[in-house]
Amino acid sequence: MELQAVLMAAGGGSRMMDLTYNTPKPLLPVGNKPLIWYPLNLLERVGFEEVIVITTKEVQKMISTDPKVKLDVKMKLDLVCIQEDADMGTADALRHIQQKVKTDVLVVSCDLITDAALHEVVDLFRAHNATLSMLMSKAHEFTETVPGQKGKKKTGEQRDFVGVDDTGKRLLFMANEADLDEGVVIRKSIMRKHPRMHIKTGLVDAHLYCLKKSVVDFLADNKSISSIRGELVPYLVRKQFSKSTNSPKVIDETHQNLKKNDKIQISSRDEELLHLTQERSCWNDHRGDMSDAYHGGRLRCYVHIMDEGICYRVNTLAAYIEANRLAPKLFDEPAVHPSAVVSERCLIGADSIIGASCQISDKTSIKRSTIGVSTTVREKVKVTNSIIMHGVTIEEGCNIQGSVICSNAVIGRGADIKYCLVGSHSTAREHNSKIAPEKRLTECHRAEVNITYHYKSITYNNCHKVSK
Amino acid sequence: SSILHIAAVVVSGTSVVVYMYTWCLSSSIHISAVVVSMFSTIICGFLFLLVVKRLPEHVQVDDPAVVKRLAKKLERQQIPLRSDYGYKVSLFSHLHQYSRKAPLTQQLSIPSTVIHPSIVRLGLQYSQGIVAGSNARSVALLHAFKQVIRDYTTPPNEELSRDLVNKLKPYISFLNQCRPLSASMGNAIKYIKKEISNIPSQCKEEEAKTKLLTCIDRYIEEKIVLAAKAISKYAIEKISDGDVILVYGCSSLVNNILCEAFEKSRKFRVIVVDSRPRLEGREALRRLVQRGISCTYVLISALSYILPEVSKVFLGAHALLANGYVMSRVGTSQIALVARTFNVPVLVCCETYKFCEKVQTDSFVSNELDDPDDLMVTRKGKTQLENWQDVSSLGLLNLVYDVTPPDFVDLVITDLGMIPCTSVPVVLRVKNLDQ
Question: Which cellular component, as a GO term, is one annotated location (chain B) (predicted)?
């Protein structure tokens, strides 16, 4: 077997707590499919037959019981549960499943939505016998206004500095702005070996890594590394150029020590043949200095940078909204689900998605929006640029613009919601009144509720079920 | 092949007609004579069919029937078909031309199940040029086969000697699609197949596998490593102090010889001749200078300028053909030609496992077309040939091999000794007798 796929679905979604306090991040609906469907679909399309999914017990329960969360993938899913409160990083999770890992791994994050050609990443891993191969993409500006945020998005996120060599494939340098004190420091040994380096900052890390099995074994020995992206990858990138690279490496040593005696002999004879091949081959990865191919280094890290195509990591609200716009392009199901009841006198734009078992009444207008499963939309409602999740009821005369309405919410009559985020299981409230959990807008009130976009909408009233 | 059938039938038919005619004319011909002559014509026809071999498929790309047959064979073996790229120059339209940007792995599933992972890795390394050079390719191929044999388990009710050979066939087709096999690889594959089929059926699986692995190790040790040592020994006798030696491209064997000669304290200097688009001479230059040999570097266009200084030419070979022609990197025949004009001796160094039974007198019939986009050069941000596909009257040709006639080669240094070029069929015959 060549590669094993590992899907990390235990993350908390800490940067979009408004959405994930009730629904775990892997099951957030994007284009009416759970978020975890997208990386699983990517792996299935490429040809994987089994995936190890590392997730929490809650997600596992929801996957097996909840009918709305249908993962129609043909692959065999091996669900491994970890405790939610154990605060495990991605590297810790990989260490947890070390016994299941029998060959090189392909680690994917559950919030990755992409149509990248995975063979580019894996080909780099195979052809150069690399230790690490990852995927990155040019970042796109998010154009949609994010509900609940005043003004433009501030660049609160720290920049990542990625250094690649002249061919654009070999990863030479990786650091986050947070780790650098004053400026970018590049060691002289790297500059001597690769005098031309391109440093890029506007790249999105797709969190898709091909790792050798020896790295997983190395993680088992070094328990201090807890995050793949934050600690392991920079460590491997730095270790490419460390002085002990020419002698058998730390990673190779631990790997060999674990094997039995005869296996060491096999691997050493094969190593001789590989060395002979490299010696006789007239290829070099660089020119201009006197060193052999790869400068004699045995640890190599490669990156494939996508120029075009979709690549999003859904870990912020802005990314979530953007992903909802573009996700429908990744699969070709009809925009309007056949089981949805849509009356004839409503206007549904071409780029809207209507989920299963929906009821859309007359004279509604739905443009550039996603309507979730089992949602009821009454008459004379205008929905523009919004994301409506499952089980929502929108009463008559509402006007919803640029908002996110989470699952099982109720939007009362005549509500005018602009650029808001309505939490799940809540009801739209009146203007300027305090949060009153029991208050519901019933028919006799007929209040005109106006919520402008400075207010973030209601909290989080999960004990309050929807009722007529 | 249908043409051959028709030709054989026509030949036998006309001879039958001739005999009938003579029989009619002179009725005193005995019946038995006629019968005997008819039998002999039929037998001649059949022999004609048997002796004439089919052309290999990779030189008949412009014949749609052959292409369809190849596609069906690959489909049966579950290997994707690699499509040709770009406009092919008409003289070479019977050969495949692939693009490096469209690797075969695009159409394979990612954890490759049909093809062993080490073979996929090898195919990628071939198509991207990471493993290049006849010796390196053979060693890498044998290394990958060792992994395959190690991971192989005999299915129930099957014999290892037959099943393993069948398992290797799709891998070989896959490697052929990635990059056409070299003559040395072909010989190595023939050797392995013979060794596998010679395994007795009572042999246990573990024993058989270790036997095969030791066979492969021994083959590499004898035919490549020790052969290189033997060739160096012979070649060093031919290098005298004060020599100016010309080498072309990067031949691992020639580099080995020069490094050994330098270590044995011969005083000489080297002129490295290089050519586009591969520019392999730069790698040869680096390896020689790293050892301390003083070198000069020229491009092949300066060959006749530099040749008056040269005392000997050492060339490597990709294969030695049965009629004494040397198949080597494109440009070698030019070097040999100009060297002959200047009366400079040309010595070709080649191990015996690269001798092949093919006969070829020109470089058109069987060759390899590399990616034509390699000929594009970007200088100062501008690529002149960027849109060469849009110009209908322009074709880019990137040949890999050419053949040098034996008249231009003075000596061939092999591990069996120093032989003239015309003795290659003798060596082949002796090798066949051994086997």
Answer: eukaryotic translation initiation factor 2B complex
Angle of the B205-220 helix axis to the B183-197 helix axis, nearest 10 = 150
C-alpha distances (whole Å) from B236 to each of B268, B332, B369 are 11, 22, 35
State the helix-helix crossing angle for B134-150 and B160-178, rounded to 10 degrees. 140
**Contact predicate B261/B270, CB 8 Å:** no
A47: chain B residues, CB-CB within 8 Å: 108-111, 113
Distance CA A356, CA A338 (A): 7
User: Which residues of chain B carry a pLDDT beneath 50?
Assistant: none
Q: Do B281 and B302 meet the contact criterion of CB atoms below 8 Å apart? A: no
CA-based nearest residue to A457, from A397, A413, A400, A383? A400
- CA-nearest of B157, B72, B151 to B119 is B151
Query: B interface toward A at CB cutoff 8 Å?
Result: 103, 105-106, 108-113, 117, 120-121, 124-125, 128-133, 135-136, 139-140, 142-143, 146-147, 150, 217, 220, 224-225, 249-250, 252, 280, 282-284, 286, 289-290
- 3-class SS at A238? helix
Give the DSSP letter string of A103-150.
SEEEEEETTEEE---HHHHHHHHHHTT-SEEEEEEE-----SPPTT--
Is residue A28 within 8 A of residue A314, CB to CB? The reply is yes
Across the A/B interface, how many CB contacts are shorter than 8 Å?
Answer: 105
Query: Nearest to residue A392, comparing CAs of B365, A381, B61?
Result: A381
Scanning the structure block, which residue is given the tokens 């060193």?
A291
B49-65 tens-digit pLDDT: 665 667 788 888 888 99
Q: Provide the shortest C-alpha distance from residue B252 to chain A (in Å).
A: 5
- CB B350, CB B413: distance < 8 Å: yes
Half-sphere exposure of A114 (CA within 13 A, CB side): 28
Integer CA distances (angstroms), A94 to A79, A108, A227, A388, B121, in order: 13, 12, 10, 35, 25
From residue A468, how far is each of A396, A465, B7 by CA, in Å?
A: 13, 10, 91
pLDDT digits (tens, 9 = 90+) for B218-228: 999 999 999 99
Does an H or E element contain A210, and which? strand A203-211
Query: How many whole angstroms separate alpha carbon A46 and alpha carbon A48?
Result: 6
Maximal CA-CA distance, chain A: 88
B112/A282 Cβ within 8 A: no
Please judge whether B121 and A274 are an interchain contact, meaning their C-beta atoms are less than 8 angstroms apart. no
Q: Which two tokens stand for residue B248?
A: 């072309």
The span from the CA of A463 to the CA of A95, in Å, is 38
pTM given for the model: 0.86
A interface with B, Cβ–Cβ below 8 Å: 1-5, 46-49, 106, 117-119, 122-123, 126-129, 266, 269-270, 273-274, 276-284, 287, 290
Query: Is residue A377 within 8 Å of A371, Cβ to Cβ?
Result: yes
- This model of the complex carries an ipTM of 0.83
Residue written as token pair 């160096």: B232
CA angle B291, A291, B234 (to 5 degrees): 35
Contact criterion met (CB < 8 Å) for A281 and B133: yes
- pLDDT at residue A446 greater than cutoff 60: no
Q: Is the dihedral of CA A223, A225, A226, A227 positive or negative?
A: negative
Element (H, E) at B47: helix B31-51
The residues that bridge with B247 in the sheet, in sequence order, are: B272, B314
With contacts defined as CB-CB under 8 Å, which chain A residues touch B290? 290
Could you read off the pLDDT of B71-116 as tens digits, one per residue? 999 999 999 999 999 899 999 999 999 999 989 888 888 888 889 9
Strand A416-418, strand A450-451: pairing: parallel
Partner-chain contact B286 A290, CB within 8 Å: yes
